[in-house]
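User: These chains co-purify. Model them together.
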Amino acid sequence: MRSKAKVIFLGIICLLIGYIPMLGVLEGNVSAQVDLGEIIVIAPQPGVEITPEKTIIRMDEFKKPGEVRTLTDVLTEIGGIDVQRTNPLMASPGDEVSIRGLNEGRMVIEIDGRRINHTGHVGRYIVDWSTLNMDDIDRIEIIRGGHSVLHPFAIGGVINIITKKGKKTKEIKPDISFKGGYGRYGTYNGSVSINGGLYNLIGYHFSAGKGETDGYLRNNYQETYNLNGHLTFFLPHEATFNLGVKYSDVDYGFPVINDPGRPDYDPDYPDFIPGADQLRHLPPTGQLPQNNPHWEKHTTYLDGILNLPLGPGNIKLHGFLTEGRRWINMWRGNTFKKDQFVDDRTKGMICEYRDIKFHFLSRHSLTLGFEYQELGWPDKNPIIYLVKSAYLQDVIRLGDAWTLTPGVRYYKIDMDTYYSRFGAGGAIPGKKQDDSGLYPSLKVDFQATPSTALYAAVSRSYRLPCP
Amino acid sequence: MRSALFYYDIEDFINDNGIASPGTGIGSNCLYNIDHFKLYGGEIEAAVRLGERFRATAAYVYQKYDADKSGFEEDWTYYLPALLPKHKVKLLARYKVWEDGWLQFSSRYVASRKTQKGSKLEDYITVDVGFEQGFKFNGMEYTAKAFVNNITGTDYEEIAGYKMPKYLWGFQVGVKF
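Assistant: Joint model of the two components:
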């Protein structure tokens, strides 16, 4: 049954674009998809725009019954995305998000086009969903599948968060908004944002928010503070320079045992017994009620982006840093561990020359770029993964109906990880490896009618071999 | 409407159980390699407008996986895709009751799926309902919103081991100027 399905599917792909053989390296991947039909409905659900390439959620227009405070509040409503929540009152570090069965270890979460994923060391917090507040978000773009070489390590897909960066305006008066809410289980939040510009020279957006919940499960409280700031300098020749910061401080109480068979049972909370499933490496679910097992986490996202029209295209230089610092207080067996500190840092630079259109290649639109990333544990091993990659994509228009998008990405990865002893003891550091390879992609679009588009894509992808 | 079929053929799939191994509690023991892993399925997503008052987004997803045996399986190991439903439907809709007054509706159907310990979670349907009213006064834009999530009181688990809450009510107010 399985092999039959595969043959039929690849047959369809072959008709359109041919088959690229898989050459797996560490975690090689071939994905393919065939669009059966595309009808872009005019004036669909406000705030949700569905296009052949992506689903776009515009935050000022997006509405749902309930709070829209964090990224997972939005993703729960979007087709093709699985969100498994520890606590539906507020996004928590234990939440798991997947596209097509692949979680954030195999998809890319981006802020303004740059990857925010960590290494995942000591807990697989590759992305901590509790830190991604929506106060400064203009829109979210969701690409399903890994066929775009413009996004590194995208196998399941891409979730790109585009921030508000202020306005180019002579109007001195900014837009100001306040929001506040209250709900069951002592859940409340409040936020303020200001969006404006000065003399057509500077745009700005600042926001601050606070949220709190007593939690549904015992001790599963949360207190969150957010600060966001974005400055845009409007330079000559349509160039812009943007500086951005997102900061969150999350105090999160781990759910504790609430077993009717124990003398410390609290009937005001639901039963919670050891052995509940745990999708992330949070402390084990057998946390005792005493001593308030919890963590405090500070996360900072910093970005500097220069956009500069140059010659036949546009230059983009993007420097970035994501830093997480967490202090964990938890039971391990009968011992309570206090203030165990773990930090992680991802930093890098993207240099991209995009949408290059030459007169003598009028059907082509080229994008090429180079990306450098360091992912590490500043306290112990600042560079666990060193990623260098370069990419090239061409969008070729063939008449009014056909578009070809070939692309290729080259990765060079240096790793400084550890040897697992598979139950015989703790991991031993010092395992040094490197890896490299070319990862091609091809997409074919066919505009069958003004309202119907078909596309097929096949790609080979690489996944950073971290948890 | 957007519809797609997808097929992933993955070599050397690093499986992460998301939990430390029982007994030793050693985290590194929860990762192992699967030689060959396949994921496939289809998805349909549509945005609909019926008249001036009703607007909706609906989505259906089917997904399935096949994994080679690795020899590392224990009775506590699992695959993440196994914890996800084969079938899933989401509906997000709003109905304009009167000027700037919108009734909001969200519903999800999640089919049965496995748990880490090998048992099965039942399928479920949840319904969330809200109402939002916007109005302008003195050049300022106000919004007021009230909602109840899981209004049908469905007993369900997103993660195995504990139930999700019922009748999650709340309200929100906002002003822009």
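The mean pLDDT of chain B is 86.
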